[in-house]
Design goal:
alpha/beta; 2 domains; 15 helices; elongated; about 450 residues
C-alpha cells in the first residue's frame, strides 16, 4: 500500500475526540438528540471506542471516539487508530484532538490501514484521514511508507523472498532514490566474506552481500541488517515449531531498508550506507558443521558450536566491512536471539551501546516516534564466555545465561567502533494491536530516525 492523507479540500466527516473524564461536559454541549444517542448507545469514551453519529436520511454524519484516560493511553500506543477498522470509507477529520497526540495519531492511522494483500486482496476500503493541523505530513508519510516496506518484506513467505528476491527489493529501493549499489557473490564472497559464504553455502539459493550508498555530503551513517531469508537451523535443525516464523529472520534487513527509505525520502543531509548479507541457512551436504572453525573477514577465527546461531556469523563479516570505512555512526539490526524476547517480550526493541549520549538521544527518539526501546548492557565481564579456547570466538557459548548480551558482545568484536549500536529485534507482532496487525513489524527504525539529528549533529 502507498500511505496517503485525504485532500484537504475534500468534503469530510468529523471524528470527535472525547476524553473519558470530560464525557459528561462534552455531552452537555451537544444537541440533545446526539447526547441521547450516545448515552443510550452506552458510549463511555474508552480509548479507541467509536460510535457513529446519525445524520439525515439514515446517513452517517460523523462519529465520536474515546480518548480514554491518561492511564489507558499509557498502556497502549496508537489507541485512536482503532477507528480505522470501525469507520466507513470516505474522508474524515479529527475535532478536539490534543495537539501533543496529533503526530502519533496521524501515523497510527496510516499504519492501521496496512494490509498484506500480495496473496489475497484487502476485504474493505479503509477510511481516509485529513492530516491534522500542525503535523509534518512529509515526515508521517515517510515513516509510514518505510514501515509498510518492512512489513511487506517480512510477511512475504521465504519461497518468494529468498536471497535473490531480497536483492531485487534492495536494488529497487536503491534505484528509486538514485543510490549506488554493489552486490558481492560467488568467489568474491567466499574469499572476502568467508562467514557469510559458510552460512549460505548449504542452500541452492546462493548467498550474497548487498550494499547501497546514498548522499554526497554530511556525516556518515552505516546500517547493517541481518538478511537470513529462512533459517532451518542448519545441521542443528530446528524443530517444526521453531521454523514457523523463520520467514521473519530477515527482519533486520527489512527494518534497515525501511529506515533507509525514510531517510532518503526525507532527504536528510547525511551520507548513508546500507549493508545486507542475504543468505538462507539450509541443510545439505555442503552445509557448515558443528565444531567447524571459520575464518572471518576481520581475521578472527570462530568455532561453530551451533549452526543455528548463524545470524551473528553473517553480521560479523558485514560489520567488519562496514567498520573499515569508520563511519560516524554504525548500527546493526537483527532478529538475533530468543533470549531478547524472554527478557523484554515482543513489543520492545532491546538495544546495546557503549555511548550514553546516543542512548539518551535514542530514548527521546523512541518517545517521539511511539517506537519503544530498552537498553541492555555490553557487559564486558562476559567477554570470556565467547572465547572457546581453540578459536578466537565461539558463536554459541554454553553459558546458559545472558544470550542476547553474549551475542551482542560477539558482534562488538567485529564492529570495533566507539559509536556502535546494535538492536536485537523480534520483527513480529504476535496478536493484532492498534496500528500493528498480526505479522511483520519494524522496531527501532522510527526511534533512530528521530534520534539521528542529535546523534549526527544535523
Amino acid at each position: 500500500m502507498t500511505p496517503n492523507f485525504a485532500d484537504q479540500a475534500q468534503p469530510s466527516r468529523p471524528l470527535h475526540v472525547v476524553a473519558a473524564d470530560n464525557l459528561d461536559a462534552w455531552l452537555a454541549a451537544q444537541p440533545p438528540e446526539i447526547a441521547t444517542w450516545l448515552r443510550d448507545g452506552g458510549f463511555r469514551a474508552a480509548l479507541g471506542e467509536v460510535m457513529l453519529l446519525p445524520g439525515g436520511s439514515g446517513s452517517v454524519a460523523g462519529a465520536a471516539i474515546g480518548l480514554g484516560t491518561p492511564a489507558s493511553r499509557a498502556r497502549q500506543r496508537f489507541g485512536l487508530a482503532r477507528a480505522v477498522s470501525s469507520l466507513p470509507a470516505g474522508a474524515w477529520h479529527f475535532e478536539g484532538l490534543p495537539a501533543d497526540m496529533a503526530t502519533e495519531t496521524a501515523l497510527g492511522w496510516q499504519l492501521a490501514q496496512y494490509r498484506f494483500d500480495r496473496y489475497r486482496p484487502a476485504d474493505r476500503t479503509a477510511p481516509q484521514l485529513k492530516c491534522p493541523e500542525g503535523v509534518d505530513e512529509a515526515l508521517v508519510l515517510a515513516m509510514a511508507e518505510g514501515e509498510c516496506l518492512t512489513r511487506d518484506l517480512i510477511n512475504t513467505p521465504a519461497a518468494d523472498m529468498g536471497p535473490a528476491e531480497l536483492e531485487a527489493a534492495f536494488l529497487a529501493l536503491a534505484d528509486r532514490f538514485g543510490a549506488a549499489t554493489q552486490v558481492v557473490q560467488g568467489p568474491d564472497l567466499e574469499e572476502g566474506f568467508p562467514m557469510i559464504h559458510a552460512v549460505g553455502k548449504g542452500s541452492d539459493r546462493a548467498p550474497r552481500l548487498l550494499s547501497l550508498r546514498w548522499g554526497q555530503t554530511g556525516p556518515s551513517l552505516t546500517l547493517v541488517g541481518k538478511g537470513v531469508c529462512f533459517d532451518t537451523g542448519g545441521l542443528n535443525l530446528k524443530p517444526s515449531s521453531g521454523m514457523q516464523l523463520m520467514k521473519k529472520d530477515m527482519g533486520g534487513a527489512a527494518t534497515v531498508m525501511g529506515l533507509a527509505l525514510m531517510i532518503m525520502r526525507l532527504g536528510l543531509p547525511i551520507r548513508l550506507r546500507v549493508i545486507v548479507p542475504a543468505v538462507e541457512n539450509s541443510v545439505s551436504g555442503r552445509a557448515m558443521r558443528p565444531k567447524d572453525i571459520l575464518r572471518s573477514r576481520k581475521g578472527l577465527t570462530v568455532e561453530v558450536n551451533d549452526t543455528d546461531a548463524e545470524g551473528r556469523l553473517v553480521l560479523g563479516d558485514a560489520l567488519a566491512w562496514a567498520a573499515e570505512e569508520n563511519p560516524e555512526l554504525l548500527v546493526s539490526m537483527a532478529t538475533l536471539t530468543g533470549a531478547a524476547r524472554v527478557a523484554v517480550g515482543p513489543d520492545l526493541a532491546p538495544y546495546f551501546t557503549d555511548d550514553d549520549s546516543m542512548a539518551r538521544a535514542l530514548e527521546a527518539g523512541a518517545r517521539a516516534g511511539a517506537d519503544p526501546v530498552w537498553r541492555l548492557p555490553f557487559h564486558t565481564p562476559y567477554e570470556s564466555v565467547i572465547e572457546p579456547g581453540i578459536a578466537d570466538l565461539d558463536n554459541a557459548p554454553g553459558f546458559g545465561f545472558a544470550g542476547s548480551i553474549t551475542a551482542a558482545l560477539f558482534l562488538r568484536r567485529f564492529a570495533d567502533h566507539p559509536r556502535y549500536m546494535h538492536f536485537d529485534i523480534y520483527g513480529h507482532t504476535p496478536t493484532d494491536a492498534p496500528a500493528r496487525p498480526k505479522g511483520g513489524v519494524g522496531q527501532g527504525a522510527r526511534a533512530l530516525l528521530f534520534a539521528l539529528p542529535d546523534m549526527l549533529g544535523l
